[in-house]
Amino acid sequence: MSIHSVVGISGNFISGKYYIAGVGGSRGVDVAFTYAIDELYAVPFFTPVPISIDKIAVYVTGTKEAYMVLGIYENTSMSNLYPSSLLLSSSEIHVPASSAGLYEDTISGSLEAGKLYWFAFTATGTYVNAVRAISSESAWSPFGPKVGSTLTNLARFWSVSRAYDSTLPNSFTAGGAMEHGSSTTAIGVRIV
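The structure assignment produced for this chain is given below.
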């Protein structure tokens, strides 16, 4: 997956390349994120210009069998940075055991300029798996640092407990926790 940062781009998106939610630094996607089963995650993605997309993807680094669903949620408002309505969703993606690699699905649509979106991810399986992630040095966050902490402890994404379903909910599950972890799930879309 060829990865490009979105933050700071003035509209020079490259057709056929993946752009990853939450990337804002130079190191990019170089660590693993071990996700929890039956948890719904949402990572921020800002669009400075209108874009059309045709795929959504995640790179699985673990070797356990899993099922996952990826999607894009609208933002509630600029004063309430929380995912709201489901805009686009993948089909359920099956990851066979011992099959690390890129998993993508068709998700055709457009994202408007000047808006914040949330790329979402949920998975299930017998064992916890891992996906490629954005390191703390490369994370971008609309929230800034956790109160009373350093700039390396940015609030990076939302997570909320939700029993796995082969589809994403039409409205993002309420009551999510703002996560301050060291890495963020790397979910990307391909520009048309």
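Interim note for the steering committee: The chain has no helices and 15 strands. The domain at 3-191 is CATH 2.60.120.820 (Jelly Rolls).
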